[in-house]
Amino acid sequence: MSAPQLDRRTVLRAAAATGGAVVLSGAAGAPWASAAPVTSKRVYVLVIDGCRPDEITPESTPNLHALRAAGRWFPQARSMPIAETIPNHVMMMTGVRPDRSGVPANSIYDRARQEVRTCGEPTDIVFPTMLERLRERGLTTGSVLSKDYLYSVFGTRATYRWEPFPLLPVTNHALDVFTMSALRTMISEADPHLVFANFGDIDRFGHSDLTGSNLQVLRRTALTSTDAQIRSFVSWLRTRSTWSSTTVVVLADRSGGQASLAGDLLAWLGAIGWAAIALIVRITRISEAPPEAQQLWQLSFSAVALLLVAPLFGPLVRDFGPEHIWMMGYQVFLVASFGFLGWFYLMKTYPASTIASFSFLTPVFAVFMGWAFLGEALHLSVLVALALVSFGIVLINRRG
Questions:
Q1: pLDDT tens digits, one per residue of 173-217
Q2: Together in a domain, 350 and 389
Q3: Residue 337 belongs to what domain range?
Q4: What are the beta bridge partners of residue 15?
Q5: Among residues 39, 235, 320, 370, which is most buried (max CB within 10 A)?
Q6: E strand or H helix at 133, and its extent?
Q7: CB burial class (10 A; 0-12, 13-18, 19+) of residue 200?
Q8: Looking at residue 12, what is its pLDDT?
Q9: How many angstroms separate the CA atoms of 102 and 106, rounded?
Q10: At 350, is the secondary structure helix, strand, or coil?
């Protein structure tokens, strides 16, 4: 007998391993039960939200550590520099960076609405995801996402979907135990070719942990619990007839470890280097050279040095587009030709301490340019902060 199908959106209420019920929804005409033949490849993408690479250890997460040791590990994989949930998950499913996916952060300023809102609407994603691409090829997909805004932003792109429930009032996510139950139910009842799942306990409990950055009782408990859920899931998959054609991919939306001394030292050296430029321009024979010559020597040296070290941090050209040409033109004609040139001229004329203090006007101009050209709102708290910065500059340069 063929699997049941409905003309409109299908809804399935199935018994869950937790003893309750899991409600799954499907696209119009999507079949339930054995959607994919036994011989078809299955891929399960499990995102351990908020987990750091340094937390995958035999002591904290023995099961994830064993999976990494026995499988393929990609240590050079990186998330976005801003480790926020929505843009990183969108990047996982689209394969492109935020400038192309349309989702740059968890929250954005909506010019049309003149408000800051969560970037969690289906129309926010402007690039095709793997969910749509596979459906276009006749394959089925599923999404089991523990956070309501992830469920919202991916919308109806997946063939089968689980709306996170029940949501905790403080963390606004479904516990991993319910998420894992929904994942198993979806595989048992719909059996999609690809399932994209998010487990949010580590991230949510880490943010709300009141035991501080040293104890982290809630976070450590969540690590242990999520690790056990992954072990249980893999063990369950091994009992199924499709295990030989199954691939399990475990990801996280954070690629960096905790703050390191090396990073702090590099930031400190960068600040020293910036200050050294001002001193060199003032107290060495370079001060006798015209501003154009000073800028030429600095840009020539930095261009060669940066090109030599650039291959150590990835490909020289990546996701090249028209916007990069505009940004390069802005850097060359406005920043370098006028900004830096004017700065060197001022350094030859006025004390270095006076000129350096005015660099703090950068955020002031940035805020007002965002208001003038992008329509961003100027809240009272922002205006007060900018006034304090300006007042500080006045105090620094006040005579006597």
A1: 999 999 999 999 999 999 999 999 999 998 887 666 555 555 578
A2: yes
A3: 261-397
A4: 21
A5: 370
A6: helix 130-136
A7: buried
A8: 58
A9: 11
A10: coil
pLDDT band at 5 (very low <50, low <70, confident <90, very high): very low
Range scoring the smallest mean pLDDT among 64-73, 115-124, 357-366: 357-366
- Note the Cα 135 to chain centre separation in Å: 25
The pLDDT, as a whole number, for residue 7 is 37
Q: Are 5 and 35 in contact (CB under 8 A)?
A: no
Distances, alpha carbon 19 to alpha carbons 22, 143, 177, 355, in Å: 10, 21, 12, 69
Decide if 130 is inside a domain. Answer: yes
Residues near 359 by Cβ (< 8 Å), separated by ≥ 6? none
- Yes or no: say if 182 and 22 are a contact pair by the CB < 8 Å rule: yes
Q: Are residues 245 and 268 in the same domain?
A: no
Residue type present at position 29: G
CA terminus-to-terminus distance, the chain: 93
Same domain (yes/no): 199, 340: no
Residue 303: its H or E element: helix 291-309
Does residue 317 belong to any structural domain of this protein? yes
- β-strand pairing of 10-15 with 141-145: unpaired
| Band (3; pLDDT cuts 50, 70, 90) | very low
Q: Are residues 140 and 43 in the same domain?
A: yes
pLDDT of residue 207: 66
Q: Which residues contact 161 (CB under 8 A, 6 or more apart)?
A: 24, 25, 26, 142, 143, 151
- In sequence order, the 6+-apart residues with CB closer than 8 A to the CB of 213 are none
Phi and psi at residue 42, to the nearest 5°: -115, 140
338: DSSP letter? I
Task: At 319, list the tokens.
Answer: 């996701």
Residues 53-106: pLDDT tens digits? 888 999 989 999 999 999 999 887 777 766 688 999 999 999 998 888 999 888
* Domain shared by 246 and 280, yes or no: no
